[in-house]
Q: What sequence folds into this?
């Protein structure tokens, strides 16, 4: 039996380790890791990378002062004391046989609220048929699991990457992406990177940028600021429609409405019989590739203030507008015919027996840092599922297995292997 195991291919090892991989996903799915609270999961992953996979493991917290000088930095109103990055590294013993590679995944997830709407425990990682349910199980703990077990399968087949290889588990992707930026700024770079964002098994070639902003109304007068806040909701809805009617990059020509202006929170008042004295709206706006987020901020600010000037009370009491969190550029990868894409296409087709596809993402991911600032080709390619950021989030386990096999094959082809 042991002799037969040693004769298994890397792809066959993924099958052999499949039950263990699902158990691992359940374990990390049961560890809450909302943005700002990633430390417990990161300790678990650091221990696994070091003691189970034998990787050289480092961890550190993003340095806000250092990052604030970088054009890709997003301003924050929080610290990173509970949010360390974890990096596992393997030093290649024959680097001339291949190129260096990063598998990178974020470990932070959004809140599961309202928990009462879930049909299962959002931290239970319930498996039912070929699906698993939990907050963050798709975005992106399944992808993190796939990249870890891709390397484990390569090891089990008796191989190691010939060139340098890293597994990066980064923080705060859901609010800024500063975790991924911090890893790159600390020198953890390579010739290419794969990020298992869960948008199906099509490589991404473009993505939107993003800005976050806050509108605050406050008064001691008997004026209902919640009603005034409704005016800005209408303004932002009209602004969203206008943006999507503008000329757009060709990569988003097939998207009906790629840019979303999302009013994520609207808080006002403290008692049903009281006239609200304060109203706060927190919003997100997408940014097309090639557009400066700073310019978009100025445009958003002007639209809000223009709307305020049409109201007699708001003329005298203009809103306070604050930008925080995401300050992210959009991105396109022009050189679609690179060796990087050829390698990914080849292994995808061999594993799945389906043609390789492409997609433009109407969202923001950490891939932007690699491509925009470090000249490192990086794409998102991950499993499928449903209800990202929603109720009863789930991952399709069959696609997670396929992604694990694709990652293992890509790792072997790109880095080369030594026995």
A:
């Amino acid at each position: 039996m042991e002799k037969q195991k040693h004769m298994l291919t890397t792809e066959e090892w993924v099958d052999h380790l499949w039950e263990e991989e699902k158990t691992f996903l359940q374990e990390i799915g049961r560890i809450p890791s909302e943005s700002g609270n990633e430390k417990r999961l990161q300790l678990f992953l650091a221990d696994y990378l070091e003691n189970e996979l034998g990787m050289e493991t480092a961890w550190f917290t993003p340095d806000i002062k250092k990052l604030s000088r970088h054009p890709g930095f997003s301003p924050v109103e929080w610290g990173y004391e509970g949010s360390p990055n974890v990096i596992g590294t393997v030093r290649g013993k024959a680097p001339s046989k291949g190129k260096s590679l990063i598998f990178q995944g974020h470990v932070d997830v959004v809140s599961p609220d309202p928990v009462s709407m879930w049909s299962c425990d959002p931290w239970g990682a319930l498996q039912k048929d070929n699906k698993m349910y939990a907050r963050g199980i798709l975005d992106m703990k399944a992808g993190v699991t796939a990249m870890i077990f891709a390397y484990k399968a390569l090891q089990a087949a008796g191989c190691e990457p010939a060139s340098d290889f890293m597994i990066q588990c980064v923080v705060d992707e859901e609010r800024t992406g500063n975790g991924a930026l911090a890893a790159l700024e600390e020198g953890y770079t390579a010739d290419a990177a794969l990020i298992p964002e869960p948008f199906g098994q099509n490589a991404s070639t473009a993505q939107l940028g993003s800005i976050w902003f806050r509108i605050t109304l406050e008064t001691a007068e008997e004026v209902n600021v919640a009603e005034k806040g409704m005016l800005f909701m209408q303004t932002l809805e009209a602004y969203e429609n206008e943006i999507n009617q503008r000329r757009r990059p060709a990569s988003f020509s097939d998207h009906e409405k790629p840019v979303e202006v999302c009013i994520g929170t609207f808080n006002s008042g403290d008692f049903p019989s009281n006239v609200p004295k304060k109203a706060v709206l927190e919003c997100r706006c997408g940014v097309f590739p090639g557009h400066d987020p700073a310019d978009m901020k100025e445009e958003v600010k002007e639209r809000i203030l223009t709307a305020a000037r049409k109201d007699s009370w708001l003329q005298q009491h203009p809103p306070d507008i604050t930008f925080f969190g995401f300050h992210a550029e959009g991105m396109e990868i022009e050189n679609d015919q690179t060796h990087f894409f050829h390698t990914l296409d080849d292994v995808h087709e061999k594993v799945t027996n389906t043609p390789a596809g492409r997609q433009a993402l109407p969202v923001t991911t950490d891939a932007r840092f690699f491509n925009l600032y470090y000249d490192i080709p990086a794409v998102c390619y991950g499993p499928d599922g449903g209800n990202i950021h929603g109720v009863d989030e789930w991952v399709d386990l069959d696609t997670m297995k396929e992604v694990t096999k694709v990652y293992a094959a890509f790792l072997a082809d790109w880095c080369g292997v030594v026995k």
In short: The mean pLDDT is 96. The first strand starts at residue 56 and ends at 60.
